[in-house]
Batch of 4 targets.
Target 1
Amino acid sequence: MNKAIIGALAALALAGSAISATAQTTLRVTLQLPIKHHLGQNMLDFKKEVEAKSNGDLKIEIYPSAQLYKDKEVPQAVASGAIEMGIASLTRFAGTAPAVDIFYVPFMFDSPAKVVKATSPGSAIRAGLDAAVLKTGTRILWWQAFGSAILLSKNPGIKLPADMKGKKVRVFGKTLGDMVKALGGAPTLMSGSKQFLAYQRGTVDAGMTGITAVKSRKLYEVMDNMTLTYHADIEFVVVINEKVWQGLSDANRKIIMTAAKRVEKELRDKMGAIEQDALKSVSDKINVIDLTDAERGKWRKATKPVVDAYIKRAGAVGAKLVEEASKL
């Protein structure tokens, strides 16, 4: 009898051990862009390292092209725990953390060097924004460089600030909407995944996006001109539900952060080359309008009032970030 009981207990212990050994934590990630876009490739790189280093304990499932959520829905979906992880434009957190729009204040970060300094882990600007987003129930794991903002338009093309007057313009944030209003246009807030149809149907006359999106979303098929204003730096962030994060083991959190730091730096380092490649690949498909320093100066002057509008909305935190940006 004793032998039978001991045998049964041993079998149960072995079964428990087997279950524990095969236990797996799945982290689903919602992505707005196609997997072939550089943000998708960056996430794939992260997935491979995390799954390999965790010996299968962590599994990353990527859902690209807004299959599960539109970008405006990502912050709430992750904060509520409806999905474990998500990738969204930083400005999508402006509803609860208005200060994040510092990167969309026109010409605030007008050189690659300033962008690198502002987005570096540990910088005063980034630390303040990471903390603001954490209060929403989501933790930023890493920042994904998306590139510079440009303008798309039907004919005639947009070259000077006055050309914006009376135009309906797709924007992806309130501060960029303020820019359009300052130039006499009418902003329309719209998810990136809806751009193609909006341009095709003429819902808007012009739109703001990144050069890489023109390539990956094939926007050159529905727009005539691309103006290289480079008026804002577009940043995306990879976020995870804070409760999910706290529920992970110390070892798995370390694996995730090690991979996150590596893929962030690698993407940031090659962003310039990625943008130039994207520009080259679409230059024969769409009319590219570059600007002289004098023309860009007119854009700076015409959009200067947007800084005050941003500070009014973002409060003391926003004022502090503008001060820090001026030091770069």
Note: The longest helix spans residues 250-282.
Target 2
Amino acid sequence: MIQSMTGYGVGDREVGGAALHLELKSVNSRFLDITFRCAEELRFLEMPLREQITGRIQRGKVECRLNLLPQAAAPRELAPNFALVDQLARLEQAVRQALPAAPPLSVAEVLRWPGVLGDQALDPARIQSEGGALLTAVLAEFVACREREGAKLAEMIRLRVSRMNELVTGVAPMVPKAVADYGRRLAEKLREAVAGLDEDRIRQEIGLFATRIDVAEEISRLTAHLGEVARVLDKGGAVGKRLDFLMQELNREANTLSAKSVSAEVTGAALELKLLIEQMREQVQNLE
């Protein structure tokens, strides 16, 4: 499906006495740019999470926020760091050998020592497993959000393509009428200015004028480009760059059509085409 580059997804997952919180959001970008904002103790999750995101997203500036939040309602499970306690005991013994009069460490002092008493350590393997599962869920929500937005943008573009096809179809019969009107005006002016002017000369001038304002090639190219836009939308996937190129081609042909115009009707159609193209270009900038 077609995706917008704007999306949002958020989720939480309980890990022991804490909650793993993940937030994904993205905006427009020419390429895929992933930024991680996470606590240092979760930094080891960055690479596996980055690989998962890269597998689903092709374009956009994606910001990933990952935090491990304590749950206030959860009971705190305290456990002393016995390895650190043993180290303190050995240090105390060494100090007391050098300073026999030094008072011994109390239990309260040991428990207050930084790192001795803390929350029960969380298993990094469990955090990685839960983080991967959380990202799968949040990423699914994130992609679904981008797909919903992409479907809306694609529908807007299709409506404008339909209107442009109507305008292009309507321009074709305007040109012969403009040539006929020009021929009548030219013939009248030349007959008034030059008595006995050769009719062949008048027809030649009208023929040159018709060649100069012929827009059959522009109409053909506009029709082809509009057909390609519809085909790309129907195909889906990452269509942003392809559609952006087609917008440039459509704008070029609309400018040429406007430059060749010799009637208010053709000029009005060309200006409306350019307006619709600009509206589509704004929508295309949001597509992956």
Note: The mean pLDDT is 83.
Target 3
Amino acid sequence: MGWIGADPIYATVFLAPYAAVFAGFVVYPLVFGLWMGSDPALYARLFSDPRYVTTLANTLILVLVGVNVKMALAFLLSGFFFDRRWWKQALLAVFLLPWALPALTVFLSMHYMLVTEWGLLDSLWRSVTGEDGPLFLVSQPIAMTCNVLAYIWKFLPFWTLVLLGARMAIPREIYEAAAIDGASSAQCLRYVTAPLLANVYLICTLLSVVWTFGDFPTAYFVSSGAPARLTDVLATYGFHMAYDFGYPRLGVAAMLSALPFVVPLVWLLMRRVRRGGVQL
């Protein structure tokens, strides 16, 4: 009987460290951040800044273009790597390297390829044509395009691997039955693979969108905001406001301004997971 009375004590002792960690590293930062960005005057100041409007547009470009192109390519490449031939498996190992390497290494390498005069691409251009190459980080459209391409190249392998795993979970008997019925490869893709992977594809896309709204290293290391911070995204804009210009509350408000986009996506993501998860 003594053990029964001691159960609440043991439960409290066991759960207390987890509750303390959750309160200290989840609840407190969340509440403190919401408090820092609670002043409506901060958002009026943000939207009066033309650079913030440009930053918001850059973030939406990175999300809409980067995520959709990345996921479409991941779907196609997962079909390419689904083939079990040895050379494709070896190529898959090489293909995964950009995702396996630290973001700092990958994006700084790209940055030094793009810089003018001594950059790799500019040097190759000059050696071939005898003229200076494009000013990659001086033109806003070119610099923003480089950010999007770098983002796709870095994170494409991960989502390709996820969709490849989803393809491998489809029973091969379904494809064999389709082949017996005379279905071509294109018909198998349209009527078998695509419907069975639709839920997984949607959940992966929603999750990728939520992550990309907070993406920091791509814009910070590839273009470094050049030219004149016209390729900043919300994460880098908030960082500069908080640490370079000494307006931490304005930096927090810049990041919180993404909540009207992120909260509905998280709600939709959780709804999809509850309705079917990632099961085929």
Note: The longest helix spans residues 2-36.
Target 4
Amino acid sequence: MLFGLSVWDIIGILVVLLIIFLIPTILRRRLISGVNKQVFELENMVTESKKILIEISKEKGKPVLDPTDTIEDFMEFFIVPPVDLDPNGVLRKFEKLLDLGEDRFKQMIKKIAPLADENTKSNLTMTLKATLGINGVAKQVRHNLELAKKTGNIQILLMLRMGLPLIMRIVRAQYEGVKSFSQGKPIGDGLGPLVAGMLMRDYKTEYTKDMEDMRVVKKRYDEHDVFIIRAKGPGARIGKVGKVVTSVIEDENIDKIITIDAAVKLEGEETGKVAQGIGVVVGGIGVEKWAIEEEILKKDLDIDAVIVKMSPEEAISNMNQKIADAANEALQVVKGSILNSKKDTNILVVGVGNSCGIPNIVDDISQIEIKTLKQ
């Protein structure tokens, strides 16, 4: 007996104390093991994405030299954001950096796939961007894992472990996007160009203009001159929406703008839900949207917005049937907005999004390759 405790009491206390001291070690090892599996999956996605890029480059671009090392080196490419302590003019700085970045991507594709046609080069550019995105996430997750191992910091591991399910959802969809871009299949974010392409049906060919990777078509509809803008297809392009829209506003005396785009749905909302509102629906960091809004203020234009809701995963992976069906509904909403406008006004319709796999004019939605339910 010790302090009135039996041998079994003392053994029980020692076991409890041992468990208390061992729990952090056990927890750390389990967390590291779980995160390790996810990191390996991320790094495998990067490897497979690079393989896809290399294979398409060799098959369609016919480079003189093996593009493997060139692509590997480009995985470290980055763009340094401009200083934003003085916000005046920061968006113009962003615009300049984005233009320079886009030029660098085009130079890279010319290097690894010099004989590819323009649509294939556009698809390769998007494939490269998606691969870079996955690579960046994989490196960041690996960094946090190694930092937690080095410092023994359970808090870092817990935050990483809790955040990984959401991260992996997006990255897996991004990986599917790599496959879609490389094969020229439409993605959910192609909703805007799809609706614009359907609106272009039966247009007269006297007015067609290509600007900054975008197509501009003029069509007479219900006593209105309707100007339709979308990224050129079927290659994967987004185009410089802000620059083209502001140019058309200036040149064509536009009275009203209707923008169409994919939008992120909330959990619990239905994919393919169409909504109408007011404003400029253009994604990205805000450069394109800012340029359009500045012009709207100067000209005092009416602005309608049409969105189709989808998850972030659906936006960057192969377009499904629900989104394709929603395009028909969104088209009717756009037509209704045109019909409700004042007579003899000039209306600009902008289909915002990625044009991968979507022809410039869509006579029938069966023209595009939609993801089947079994996939």
Note: Strands lie at 208-211, 214-221, 224-231, 256-264, 274-277, 302-310, 346-351.
